Amino acid sequence: MKNLLFLLFLGVAPAAPALAQSTTVKPEVAVADQRRPVQVLEAACGQCRLGLPGKSCDLAVRLNGKAYFVDGTHIDAHGDAHAEDGFCQKTRQARVQGEVVNDRFVATYFRLLPEADKAP
Fold first, then answer.
1. What is the pTM of this model?
2. CB distance 78 to 112 below 8 Å
3. Beta bridge partners of 60
4. Is residue 116 pLDDT above 80, yes or no?
5. Rounded Cα distance, 101 and 104, in Å
6. How many CA atoms lie within 13 A of 100 on its CB side?
7. Any idea what DSSP says for residue 40?
């Protein structure tokens, strides 16, 4: 017991099984269906950038002039939304496949495009 207390005092804990963090955030929906068209759409935070109602930051796209929240991927799967180049700070371009279902865009493919280099 004395040895255990000494180890804890030094900040060394006895070996315990490591638990991996689980995540429910999907990364990019990475495989496009070659039989369906891929569109380049504006993507951003629906509340911060595209004028959608809500109290948290959620991924949205603009299709034919109308903004839709996105299902199938998550705002945090594409970097820090609040970073300088994040969805809450900038509207970005993304290659997407999917369709509007019940006034939401259900993405079956979503790949954020790199920002264009700025001319000096």
1. 0.72
2. yes
3. 44, 69
4. no
5. 5
6. 10
7. E
